[in-house]
Amino acid sequence: MNSISKIIELINVFLVEIGELSFFGWRFLKESIKRPFELKECIRQCYYMGNRSLLLVAVTGFIIGLVFTLQSRPTLQEFGAVSWMPSMVSISIIREIGPIITALICAGRIGSGIGAELGSMRVTEQIDAMEVSGTNPFKYLVVTRILATTFMLPILVIFGDAIAIYGSYLVENIKGHVSFLLYYNQVFDSLEFGDLVPATIKTFFFGFAIGLVGCFKGYYCKKGTAGVGLAANSAVVFTSMLLFIIDFIAVFVTDIFYDL
Fold this sequence. Notes:
By secondary structure, the protein is mainly α. The protein is 88% helix and 0% strand. The termini are far apart. The mean pLDDT is 87.
């Protein structure tokens, strides 16, 4: 009975948190269309999140391109299909691997940072001081960060995809002596409008989820300074789960439109 009650309690806590997160997202939508607009802070957050994540995304994308090509090349050689490598790599990276890997990296880099930053502001009563002084802390702290992650993640994903494909080209150039022009001609010939648009659209939802969960965990941080680490950690875990759910829904919806 104790185990059943614990399971019921965990499910109850999970459902309550989902409801609170939904209300938090609805509040963001209402606050984001009200004046005044914190444009300068939003631009600063875009620069902070994008610039600080460029190197990590570039290194990760480059390694993904190298490893994916090195692992796939022997199998394609067995079937005499090495010429399909540019098409296979570009479609796989742009459709799925690039967006989800970049989003997971940003969840760890940006989501945890937002959770820790807002959590430390909450436990040191800086957010309370902003409310007392007449400033709207939700608009200044939360709305700007969610908008920044929503707008910057697609740019980071495109940048990471480009670096990954370039890493794949280097392997093909060394192993198969494929020229730059030939490789990229095959890449762009294989890509279609239906590959780029769904992959780009879902990155906006990825960015929104990262910002929303990170801000939610940090804004309602409790239990003193120990809660700051808990907020940062739970933001990464919760966001990672949410990213996979969003990705599944995006693939499912895209597949329906392809079948029509």
